[in-house]
Amino acid sequence: MSSRSTPPAVDVRGLRKGFGRHTVLDGLDLTVERGEVFALLGPNGAGKTTTINILTTLVRPDAGTATVAGIDVVQAPEQVKQRISLTGQSAAVDDVLTGNENLVMLARLSGLSARAARARATELLERFALTDAGAKRVGTYSGGMRRRLDLALSFVVTPEVLFLDEPTTGLDTRSRRELWDVIRSLAEAGTTVFLTTQYLEEADQLADRIAVLDGGCVVASGTPAALKARVGGDTVELHDAHGDLLREVPTDGTVSGLRRALDVLDESGAEGVVTLRRPSLDDVFLALTSSDGRGRADAREAEASALKEIA
Ligand SMILES: Nc1ncnc2c1ncn2[C@@H]1O[C@H](COP(=O)(O)OP(=O)(O)O)[C@@H](O)[C@H]1O
Ligand SMILES: [Mg+2]
Fold this sequence. Notes:
Blueprint: E1 10-19, E2 22-32, E3 37-41, H1 48-55, E4 63-68, E5 71-72, H2 77-83, E6 84-86, H3 99-109, H4 114-127, H5 143-154, E7 161-165, H6 173-188, E8 192-197, H7 200-206, E9 209-214, E10 217-222, H8 224-231, E11 234-239, E12 245-251, H9 255-268, E13 273-277, H10 281-288, H11 296-310
Parallel strand pairs: 3-8, 3-9, 6-7, 7-8
Antiparallel strand pairs: 1-2, 1-4, 4-5, 9-10, 11-12, 11-13
Helix pairs in contact: 3-4, 8-10
C-alpha cells in the first residue's frame, strides 16, 4: 500500500560517514517500508551502529540524505525524535529508582496518565521477565537485568519506527526468544522495526527484508528467502560412511525435483547416505562479505567484468 502520501519509514540515499580518515559508510542506500521488520546485518565494525546513530539524529552524516517517516534527520531532528524510539538508553536509567519507578517515570514523561503509566510498567516488567526485580533499585541489577530494563524502556510508548541496535546481544536464549515475540507482536500492530544484528538466525527469524552491510555499502538485500536463493538452491548430497561428499545434485526442493535428483544418484550406482542441504543465511553472509571489509560480491563482479574484457 505505497502511495505518494505515505513515504517509506526509512529512506537512505548515498549516505556517507567517516571518522578521521576512516570511511565507515561509503554511499549507503536503503529503503524500509512502513510496517516492515528490517534487519541490517553485518559483522562487527561494519557501520551498523553508525547507521542507527545517523537515523536517530545522534550523529550527522558527511553526505547523502536520510529520512525517517518522511522527515529529514539533519533538517528536522526534533520532529524525527518524536516519531522514533531507540534502545541503548541506559544512560537515562536512574540507579536509585526501582525498575518499576523508572518505567512509570518515563511513561508519565511520555504523556500517559498515572494509572496508564502504572499499567504499562507492570505489563513491561512482565514481558521482560522483571516482575520480581521491579521493586528493587536498578543499582542492584545484574548486566542482563539492566539490558532487559533498557529494552523495556524503549517499549514504553509505541513509536512509528522502533530502532533496535543489536537488541539480543548479551541475552540468554530464553530472553532472546521472548524479545523476538515482542518484536513480532509490535510489527503485527503496525510498528516499523529497524534492527541491526550479527546473528543470521535472528535476521532470518524476524525480518521481512534484510540488507547485508559490508565495506560501507549494502552488498545484498531482499527477503531471507531471496538471499538464500542468490547463494544457490537446495542440493541433494550423497555422503559415504565417513561423511565425505560423493555426489551432489542440484534440486528445486519440490517432490518431483527430489525424486529426479534421487534417480540421478541411483543411476550413478554410488552407495551412501542422502541428505538435503538448504543454504542458510551463513552461506549468504560468507558468499557476500569478506573479512577485509570489501564486499566480495563487488570483487566478484569486478572479476566477472575483467574476464569479459579478456574474452
Ligand atoms: N565516534 C567514533 N570515532 C571514531 N571511530 C568510530 C566512531 N564510531 C564508530 N567508529 C568506527 O567506525 C566503524 C564502524 O563502527 P560501528 O558503526 O559501531 O560498527 P558496528 O555497529 O557495525 O559494529 C568502526 O571501525 C568503529 O571503530
Ligand atoms: Mg554496533
